[in-house]
Request: fold
Amino acid sequence: MPEFTSTIGQPNALSIGFFFLFVAFTLGVTWWAARRSRSAAEFYAAGRSVTGFQNGLALAGDYMSAASFLGIAGLVALTGYDGLIYSIGFLVGWPVMMFLVAEPLRNLGKYTFADVVAYRLRQRPVRVAASCGSLMTVAFYLIAQMVGSGSLVHLMFGLPYETAVLVVGVVMIAYVLFGGMLATTWVQIIKAVLLLGGASVMVFLVLQRFGFSPAELFRASAERYGDKVLSPGGLVSNPWDALSLGMALMFGTAGLPHILMRFYTVPDAKAARSSVFYATGFISYFYVLTFIIGFGAMALVGQDVIARFDRGGNMAAPLLAEVTGGTMFLGFIAAVAFATILAVVAGLTLAGATTYAHDLYANVFRRGRSTEEDEVRMAKRATVALGVLAVGLGIAFKGQNVAFMVGLAFAIAASANFPALLMSILWKRFSTFGAVCAIATGATLAVGCIVLSPTVWVEVLHSPWGMAAPFALKNPALFSMPAAFAAGWLGSVLRPEPDAEARFAAQKVRNYLGVGAE
Amino acid sequence: MATITETAEHLDMTMDVLPEAPHSFMDDDERFTELVRSHRGVSLALTAAMLAVYFGFIMVLAFRRDLLHAAAGGMPLGIPVGFGIIMAATTLTGVYVWWANRRYDGAVRRIVATLKPQGRGRHA
Reply:
């Protein structure tokens, strides 16, 4: 077999051209959106003008990050079936989010999930606690994305890490600052269409070589690497670990601030509902595509070659693009992966800025007495601050193992944000003290346990004092999420709030009938 | 038990004074309690179905992995099962949308319609 050569890692004029085209077009969209992003409802929620279908694409776009496209395709290419188990975990949270929180969120809130938790409780303590949960989730997710983007762009284009992080930061700030949610949504939609389209073409080109029979493709992979690639391997060896990670993924999705925020961009609960249906469909389709892309890379590129370019397998999809479609297709896929990073980071930054300006500034610092203009101004300042912070942290964490941070973001979302949100929707006796207890317990335990878990203790800190990891599970959700529910219950029983209980009836009417929803 | 007309009048009278209090009547309204009950039933049942499918899969992976090695249509059973779970997630959301569009929205409209004439009268 001849030595495999690739143009990956060299500055590729085509991919840089495609990328500039994407940035120029999306900045045009931002310019168009800028005139429609002045009021708070416009800046935070795109004037509630997004349709269910569009929001479905945007939601799917938020979820189909570069890490999940390149990472899952790579995982499948290197381990086979286990990659599918991983992607299933990320998918099953969507139906749960739809059944439990999507419509109540739309009916009860304005811009953030804290609006719902604080609906009938005391504003300041609840908003402070919910903002902490929100900002922690966003921060960890953002660091993981920035560090990932720097290394991926470096791998693909040969661009220096710091330059890549800086480019992502500057363009992303431009989207959010000038175009608010409307631009962020459209960037996400455009990217989702490009990503789904590009991945579909790649799957077509792969299957073409196997007579359009996936079974043929699987057989070819098994011939090369053994039957083991078609069956579950070592990913789920410890059932408790699997259960705990499963809980974090399943309930964490329903607690991710940048996802929840999208439900406010549609006109009503009915559209919120249909958007989750579309999103789940798109994400399902996307995971089926990445599975086939992974096997295609395994059969046509080869595991040794993939691992030579990147030990984690992240280059499997770009390499396959080059093998099936030449340099031009590689350029397109690489540009789409870069665009994907931009869009996801923009969504996260907007969610963080909204939490700061709407929850903390307007409702805590100014006690609800600020004007709408003040609030939007603060949101814009927060966008710049967060963008600068993201670039700084991205550079500071260069070369660090930050893979655990996505798991941590999901653990905090599942343990702090989701319990408080669900209890405030369903439980009449939920009180302010209960909400604060639930969020504080969930967030503290999620962070504390993950530091003491094998994920950080062994893999990042390299077992200080030669001690084994004090907390045995890799993801803390199995313990921290039930603990947060228990704390919420205990806090509400210890300090009941008759006023809040009395307002539950009104909340229920608005929740189920949509009467008075913004 | 308060009827919907009485409660609508109550709503009309108190709306200007107490923006939130009038809704409390709804706890006594049969149609509203039935609506809430059916919604909770459907959403909890579908959530339970998704949990059962996913954690069932995880348990099979943990304890009876060999079941997924059996051949099915030229490939190990694990692959169609995995795709089946992906399909199940989309199907369950589809079932919910179908139910909500067919049943729930209509029930909401009927309840809201009995409130509206009074509300409009007030603004006239």
